Q: What sequence folds into this?
């Protein structure tokens, strides 16, 4: 067998299976599409579940992919060993009810032994212990030496997750040679040593399990195979582990150049080099697929990887930011197979740089605080059990200083110190509850898939691009979670009736655009439609209220979309396209859509940008959009191949996976985007565009909310009403006089405030006159105390300032009561402060006697008294408190 690069191996595999009649698919994005069960794609099969579950049909029923994957359960082990990594590529060939074991084994053996020319004597095969069929095929048809065959149990060679499709599998192993073995005479496939490594797993999905140990044979089996590209490259390049594979080793070389560290010369620094190398690969691909650093979900995984890599950079002496430079090597090594990396290069670098800058601002302060906590624990702990960081301290590090919990835990482990995770989680409970509620909400999106996945009918035909009223047939009904032939109104309307039509004008919620609303009518029923969702099998499920009559399956109906609301939605959706074009023109090409929401009332657009948008920039953006509207540009829609669409310069949604055919929406020469939503026919239909807010959603993500058409008129009416009501309240005959009137009132208020301040000062002077007559002296310090009923905190402040400013060697502790609230004020002259008496500490100690609290600056402070009956006692204790403070 010949040395083969990782990139060439990928191409060899995909080309081989393409020649065998498989659809060659590009890698799906790392963000799962229409699958809330996964945070990130972690296997080659994961994005294809809808085909295996029968929710969608793969053309030709065959596919081959090289799928990028992220797995993070063993993130703490990455770097410590050379076996673990978070990013990998999985080669796979798949059959959806087409070929089975015969072809799967034939082609696998052919690819390894003929295409790659791996000697047969170095390959071993395992089968499930009861799978005689697979054993026979391997031995008698593929010609595998029986001594290279092994039967293994259910734990190793049977793929099953709960109920549903499952089946036995065959694994192909490669013998790396005796030097990798353990020396045991029993050493063979299944041994824990490194000699025999699994390179390919062929899963034969042939049963349906009820999850209780009962299995029913499927009429047609499926094939799902997976072979790690990096592991195969280890075999073909004769290297020990994935960090020595050519494209990954080139990343290590760049880490060596930046750090000045030589890999494989020091075990400790080798760990950091591997961590950085693995994590930068993961982060580059995640960002390219649309993941943004955040504090939850997949965004937190990305942030954790980036910050872990940044910290290990510091550990090997890299003082400056370097990850955004290192990512260039990752892109260069992988861009041939993943051209989107090159397309998104500047954006990827910007996200990494921004996150690294943010981390650098927190890491030094956080490390300093954590180091102090570690020193304290090591000094005070009497045994290993006592070496624990409290949950509240871990929470403060995370909440106040942005120091990641996982990083805290990792650093503590390096010092042999544990952490109170339960305590930390307790302080994060509120955030966890919010996340849990969000997950529940997200899982509800798939309600229709679960109920309608068994329907064996043609998918719904969507007519809503060209018509708002369609004659159609009702092909399925459901109510209260069950299919029905008929649903009727009893005493009152029935809500949550689910209706599937053979064709519909109703747009199903998708791509940030809300579903259409309207009515469905039959000869016997009227249904009000308030939601519409599309299932994985292409059924449009209309959620309705049956207002009168009864509705039956297989009856004719007329479906009518609310035209006024649809047109408002279209205006707002089209404005989102114009806005993105304007944003990129004003802010830069790094701007990409990060999310959107479009309904009849407004448009909300989330986009990548790393600073608040200035008032001037917003004005320019708004002007550009309105100029495009007033230019009356035709809006054209075309379906074309994805390659053709890219040649037109059409913008794709970041991280989205598109099919072979895409829908391109073009607005003059101003905007061209991939989009499946509904739009106006001319930009002039928008009327006007007005931004109502700009805010931050997350680190590196901004949000603009805007209105169009009638929404702008409504906004103008609301603003005018506010102006008219304000003028009326100020008894103005004309609202045009409002500005001058408000300016005059502000001036009057300033004059009045000045007079109030003067009066307060005079009142304070009168109240304090008798205070200076009999001071108590302690160690040469004059102490003035007093209680003043009906005195506000502002007046008390003025009195304290008078004492402080009158005598540098004086202290005043004064109490005032107003509206049932007692305030304590403490003031200290300059000389007194120099002697160690601070007003903040004094106010706190005096208030404590009453059960209250407070504090402030050395020269003046205020506190609240809790038990009013102890105020006299507190004032009497002032001389003693000062004695103790000296």
A:
């Amino acid at each position: 067998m010949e040395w083969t690069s990782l990139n060439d191996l990928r191409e060899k595999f995909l080309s081989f299976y393409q020649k065998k009649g498989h659809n060659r698919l590009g890698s799906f994005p790392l963000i799962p599409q229409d699958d809330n069960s996964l945070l990130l794609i972690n296997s080659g099969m994961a994005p294809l579940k809808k085909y295996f579950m029968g929710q969608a049909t793969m053309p030709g029923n065959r596919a081959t992919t090289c799928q990028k994957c992220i797995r993070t359960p063993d993130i703490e082990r990455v770097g410590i060993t050379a076996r673990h990594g978070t990013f990998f590529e999985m080669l796979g060939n798949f059959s959806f009810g087409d070929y089975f074991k015969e072809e799967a084994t034939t082609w696998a053996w052919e690819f390894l032994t003929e295409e790659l020319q791996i000697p047969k004597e170095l390959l071993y095969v395992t089968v499930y212990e009861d799978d005689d069929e697979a054993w026979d095929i391997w031995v008698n048809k593929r010609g595998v030496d029986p001594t290279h065959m092994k039967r293994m149990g259910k734990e190793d060679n049977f793929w099953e997750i709960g109920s549903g499709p499952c089946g036995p599998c065959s694994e192909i192993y490669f013998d790396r040679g005796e030097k990798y073995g353990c020396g045991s005479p029993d050493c063979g496939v299944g041994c824990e040593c490194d000699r025999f490594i699994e390179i390919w797993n062929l899963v034969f999905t042939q049963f349906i399990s009820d999850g209780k140990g009962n299995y029913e044979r499927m009429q047609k089996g499926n094939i799902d195979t997976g072979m790690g590209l990096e592991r195969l490259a280890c075999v073909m390049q004769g290297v020990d582990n994935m960090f020595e594979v050519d494209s990954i080793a080139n990343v290590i070389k760049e880490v060596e150049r930046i750090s000045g560290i030589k890999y494989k010369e020091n075990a400790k620094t080798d760990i950091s080099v591997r961590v950085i190398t693995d994590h930068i690969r993961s982060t580059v691909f995640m960002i390219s697929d649309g993941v943004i650093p955040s504090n939850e979900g997949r965004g937190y995984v990305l942030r954790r990887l980036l910050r872990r890599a940044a910290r290990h950079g510091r550990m090997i002496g890299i003082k400056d930011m370097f990850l955004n430079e290192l990512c260039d090597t990752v892109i260069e090594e992988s861009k041939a197979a993943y051209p989107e990396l090159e397309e998104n290069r500047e954006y990827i670098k910007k996200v990494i740089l921004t996150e690294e800058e943010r981390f650098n601002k927190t890491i030094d302060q956080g490390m300093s605080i954590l180091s102090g906590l570690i020193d304290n624990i090591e000094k005070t702990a009497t045994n290993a059990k006592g070496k624990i960081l409290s949950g509240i301290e871990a929470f403060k590090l995370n909440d106040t200083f942005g120091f990641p919990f996982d990083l805290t835990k990792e650093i503590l482990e390096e010092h042999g110190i544990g952490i109170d995770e339960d305590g930390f989680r307790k302080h994060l409970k509120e955030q966890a509850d919010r996340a849990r509620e969000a997950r529940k909400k997200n899982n509800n999106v798939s309600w229709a898939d679960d109920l309608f996945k068994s329907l064996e009918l043609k998918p719904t035909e969507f007519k809503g691009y060209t018509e708002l009223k369609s004659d159609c047939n009702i092909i399925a009904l459901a109510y209260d979670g069950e299919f029905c032939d008929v649903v009727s109104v009893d005493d009152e309307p029935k809500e949550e009736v689910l209706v599937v039509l053979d064709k519909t004008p109703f747009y199903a919620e998708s791509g940030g655009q809300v579903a259409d609303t309207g009515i469905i009518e039959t000869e016997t029923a009227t249904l009000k439609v308030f939601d519409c969702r599309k299932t994985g099998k292409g059924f449009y499920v209309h959620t309705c209220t049956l207002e009168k009559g009864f509705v039956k399956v297989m009856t004719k109906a007329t479906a009518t979309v609310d035209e006024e609301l649809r047109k408002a939605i279209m205006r707002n959706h089209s404005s989102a396209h114009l806005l993105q074009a304007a944003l990129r023109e004003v802010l830069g090409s790094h701007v990409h859509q990060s999310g959107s929401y479009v309904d009849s009332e407004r448009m909300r657009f989330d986009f990548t940008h790393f600073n608040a948008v200035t008032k001037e920039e917003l004005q320019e953006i708004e002007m550009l959009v309105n100029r495009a509207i007033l230019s009356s540009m035709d809006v054209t829609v075309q379906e074309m191949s994805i390659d053709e669409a890219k040649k037109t310069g059409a913008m794709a949604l970041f991280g989205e996976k598109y099919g072979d055919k895409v829908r391109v929406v073009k607005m003059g020469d101003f905007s061209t985007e991939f989009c499946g939503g509904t739009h106006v026919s001319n930009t002039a239909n928008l009327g006007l565009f007005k931004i109502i807010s700009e805010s931050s959603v997350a680190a590196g993500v901004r949000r603009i909310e805007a209105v169009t058409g009638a929404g702008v008129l409504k906004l103008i009416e609301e603003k005018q009403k506010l102006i008219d009501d304000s003028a009326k309240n100020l008894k103005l005959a004309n609202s045009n006089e409002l500005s001058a009137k408000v300016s005059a009132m502000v001036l009057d208020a300033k004059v009045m405030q000045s007079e109030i301040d003067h009066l307060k000062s005079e009142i304070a002077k009168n109240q304090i006159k008798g205070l200076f007559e009999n001071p108590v002296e302690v160690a040469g310090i004059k102490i003035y105390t007093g209680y003043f009923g009906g005195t506000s905190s502002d007046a008390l402040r003025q009195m304290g300032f008078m004492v402080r400013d009158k005598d540098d060697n004086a202290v005043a502790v004064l109490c005032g009561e107003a509206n049932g609230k007692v305030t304590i004020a403490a003031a200290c002259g300059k000389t007194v402060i120099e002697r160690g008496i601070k007003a903040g500490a004094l106010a706190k100690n005096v208030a404590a006697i009453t059960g209250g609290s407070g504090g402030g600056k050395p020269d003046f402070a205020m506190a609240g008294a809790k038990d009013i009956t102890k105020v006299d006692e507190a004032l009497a204790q002032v001389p003693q408190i000062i004695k103790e403070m000296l």
About this structure: The mean pLDDT is 89. The longest helix spans residues 345-380.
